[in-house]
Amino acid sequence: MLDLDHLRAFVEVVETGGFSRAAARLGLSKSIISRRVAALEADLGARLLARTTRGINPTEAGLDFKLRAERILGDLEEARDAVAQSGAEISGTLRLALPLSFGLRHVQPLLTDLARAHPRLKIEAAYSDGVVDLVADRFDAAVRLGVLADSTLVARRIAPIHAATVASPDYLAARGRPQTPADLADHDAVVQSGMRQGDNWRFVEGKRTVTIRPNARFRADNGEAVAQAAIAGLGVAVLPTFLISDAIRDGKLEPLLTDYPFSEAGLYLVRPPGPAPAKVRVLTELMVERFSGEPYWDACAMLRREMKPPS
After folding, report:
1. Which residue in 42, 106, 126, 245 has a CA-CA distance of 20 to 30 Å to 5?
2. Which H or E run includes 49?
3. Mean pLDDT over residues 59-84, rounded?
4. Do residues 129 and 221 touch, judged by C-beta distance below 8 A?
């Protein structure tokens, strides 16, 4: 009878490419992981890993066995979910990828409530504005902001995310105020890199979309950093209003191009294809409950109404 812990250790070694990284992910020592893989190879009577000076790679038999081991572990997780659901108790580990700023500000309290409500549920949250591969990185779900690209992922739209074009008073005093998206060609821009839509900014003008490629003077991979650079006067920025409401209220940033709103984005929960595990379903329900109503997390809600042109 093969030990399931041995299977998990082997799969993690292949996924992460090493014993140390697998040990860190599983919260165990490197020696324990090594012993478990060695015991698995002894039980099977086959070499699963090839150890070279360049690292550790699965053998042909190891690649085949990894696929089978993943199915076994996946079936076990589904079985646990089914039993937990029947007993109204959620268990297992929820691996979730989140955007840095919105995740820390608004999703983290939700995850705290989720953990308190389900004591047997473990949560592993990864905060980054980079785009992760849910399947390859073995995430159960991800919270994403923006406009989603076509993919095989299952997406649930939770709420709209609004953005505003802004610049600091000092920048506008020195460079003037753009009146149309085309005027941005004569302005410096502060841009968040790594976005799914690339560097392009898409504005709504009547029934058409105007696409502008800004002249990026400063780039950062996080919205907080972009906001700080815009406040410092480095250029025009397009940022979600939940992030810059305080700066607008305090006069550190001024809204621009209010007759040309930025293409509306969304707050999404995405997951790999297939049936949703109970832990993902309960997360989805909580996010819909928390975020789909009045956007308490976006203090610019009233300001957006005032910025809209009269109909």
Report:
1. 126
2. strand 49-52
3. 79
4. yes
Which ranges of 188-251 would DSSP assign to H, the alpha helix? 223-231, 241-249
- Sort residue 131 into left (φ over 0), alpha (ψ -120 to 50) or beta: beta
Lowest model confidence (mean pLDDT) among 110-124, 168-182, 218-232, 287-301 = 287-301
Q: Alpha helix locations (H) across 179-221?
A: none
Six-digit token pair at 262?
């930025």
Q: Taking Cα atoms as reference points, which of 71, 12, 63, 53 lies closest to residue 36? A: 12
CATH architecture designation of domain 4-85: Orthogonal Bundle (1.10)
pTM above the 0.90 mark? no
User: Which H helix or E strand runs over 1?
Assistant: none
Question: Quick one: tokens of 92?
Answer: 């297992």
User: Would you tell me which CATH number, out of the four given (3.40.50.620, 3.40.50.970, 3.40.190.10, 3.10.290.10), belongs to the domain 89-161+266-301?
Assistant: 3.40.190.10
